[in-house]
Amino acid sequence: MATHLRRRKRLSALAKVRTGIAGFDDITGGGLPRGRPTLIAGGPGCGKTLFSMEFLVKGATEFAEPGLFVSFEENQQELAQNVASLGFDLEHLVERRLLSIDLVRAEAREIEETGDYDLEGLFVRLGHAIDQIKAKRIVLDTIESLFAALPNEMVLRSELRRLFRWLKDRGITAVITAERGAGTLTRNGLEEYVSDCVILLDHRVIDQVSTRRMRVVKYRGSVHETNEFPFLIDENGFSVLPITSFALTHKASTERMSTGMARLDEMLDGKGLYRGSSILVSGTPGSGKSSIISHVVDAACARGERCLFFPFEESQMQIVRNMRSLGLDFDRWVSRGLLHFYPARQHQYGLETHLAMLHKKVLKFNPRVVAIDPVSNLTEIGSTMEAKAMLTRMVDFLKGRGITALFTSLTSDAQNPEMTEVSISSLMDTWLLVRNLESNGERNRGLYILKSRGMPHSNQIREFILSHQGIQLLDAYTGTAGVVMGTARLVQEERDKAEELKLRNQIDQKQRELASKRKAMDMEIEELQARFADESRELETIISAYRLAEGNLAEQRMVLKDVRQSQRNNGSGNGKSGGMNGGQYGSIRYNSRKERARVQSR
Amino acid sequence: MSNPDERWQLRLYVAGQTPRCLAAFTNLKKLCEEYMDGNYSIEIIDLLQKPQLAQGDQILAIPTLVRKLPQPVRKIIGDLSNTERVLVGLDLRQR
Asked: Which residues lie closer than 8 Å to A97 by C-beta, 6 or more apart?
């Protein structure tokens, strides 16, 4: 178990030697395999020699590893000239015994083969050169030329095998370059001998734009990136750009940054943009996209933040001049080193190279804000898919570093602006749309926020005006006649004011009318109440009079009754005898009611 | 060291005393006796002892015979066992 673990550990720890080539060590997880040969294959002019030379120069200058460059093709002067353009001073390194250059020349027409031989001469020579400077690195560029010079391929092949073995035994990290063959990695099948690490360089031209790419085809015993990576060769040498679409793991900042336009900040939840987010300003030509991002850039510079500006349409001077008319003084930011411009035409490089350039500049300058104006030009170079892939990587890269990215994008008037940019808009956190709104013989600029992730934002269209005081955002006039801007807005405002006045007058009038009606009603009520009071008094008097009368009547009745009672007791006997008589009376009543009525009436 | 009167100036590069190098020397000696009529000089350079000399004559293969004179310089590689080819290489015989 323990042995197993130990062995695993030993196996996993493949020693690597850093090349010092920008980005390359990242994609290979630390550089080339130490003490082993690496094959660099590629077509003519793809940068094999430069890569190898930089490997040695960096080894000598940065890692104290002297290197031997064995050239089978160029002479020393040519070689020195070629790499001098990259800023390498070979002579100086040679003097300090950190670098040695050996030119091996073998020409078929000078050589006659007359029996058995081997390449011991080469071994001796290399061995000697290695010992002279205690070389730790060696480059064989391009050893394949021997195939043309030496007649016996069998011997050559077995000797090459021996050579690579020999280099391995000596623990020297070797780079062997080889021409790319048709359909094979190398013309002479060198990959058969050098199989620890194989790197392919490529230089292709698509639509008249050249792009350099690199790929690690194979790396025995090591994980490595398998994608193609763009690389640059410029005055600072070779640089590989380890740009891949990173996982979406970048930190999301909650910090906000002002756009430099108070009204716009207000529209964005009152706080402005999220730092490290991506912002797209799209619009028709002349709608003021550049002006908007220039304001954001200006505000950032004013806060002392570094900004990188990549214009694809205007030169630095032109931008500075134009922005001055908006009251923005870019010159002072440039002179303070806060603002850098990198103007380039989109067709100058391929997409990858553009990305690579941006990558490089960003790493060097370390800005907090990057502006690309306009990004739609980049989409002209490649297919939409390529452009999107490139933009994704660009956005990821910038976000990964917490850089706020500003993009402008041009939409044509005819297109629906919200449709055309679906491809890139999904990458954007905040999308501002500027439109020329045409009405009543005027063009006016309108701005609205199409989306802004992670914040409540205004849904209003604002009119914006470019003036010497910069950008002013106004409330677009929303009245009864819809959204109006510009002169029409002023007119409409006046008209609405008049309308309002008229209405107010009418209201006042009606209110007065109402008041007077109420007054009239109140008076009437009062009158009625008064009349009612009078009448009720009168009636009450009558009622009491009647009551009195009623009381008198009852009294009279009682008197009458008493009177009648006394009459009955004196005349026809008392009530009891009358009762006995009542039998007669009653029989009459029994016979007929009418009769009784007749009797009573009598 | 070399006599300017000598028409043939030859230099044989070897690496130690391997059978192949020894064979080359023997073959060369025989050939010179036969075709150069004593008018030659042979310089043997053992690269194991003087590795720095490999660069000057651009030596890769061992053994290599370099014809310094007469001009132009010619290089003949191998153990010189193929006499015909050696003679062609030395311009002693038409190709």
From this structure: A66, A132, A133
- Rounded Cα distance between A311 and A345, Å, is 8
- The C-alpha R_g of chain A, in whole angstroms, comes to 53
CB of B32 less than 8 A from some CB of A: no
Q: Which CATH architecture has domain B8-89?
A: 3-Layer(aba) Sandwich (3.40)
Give CA separation, A377 vs A310, A373, A429, B63, in Å: 12, 8, 20, 63
Q: Which residues of B touch A128 (CB under 8 A)?
A: 51-52, 54
Considering the entire predicted model, what is its pTM? 0.64
A96 token code pair: 């300090």
- Per domain, the residue ranges of chain A are 11-240, 256-475, 485-536
pLDDT tens digit sequence for A211-258: 788 888 888 888 777 788 888 887 777 888 766 545 566 777 888 999
Please tell us whether the domain made up of A11-240 is placed in CATH 3.40.50.720.
no
Taking the CA of residue B58 and the nearest CA in chain A, the distance in Å comes to 6
Distance in Å, alpha carbon of A174 to nearest chain B alpha carbon: 19
CATH of domain A256-475: 3.40.50.300
What ipTM was assigned to the predicted interfaces of this complex?
0.90
Q: Which residue is it, tokens 């439109």? A: A435
Q: Is the dihedral of CA A166, A169, A172, A173 positive or negative?
A: positive
The answer to whether the A11-240 and A256-475 domains have the same CATH topology is yes
When CB atoms are compared, the residue of B48, B65, B77 closest to A124 is B48
Residue type, A194: V
Residues B90, A112: Cα–Cα separation, whole Å: 9
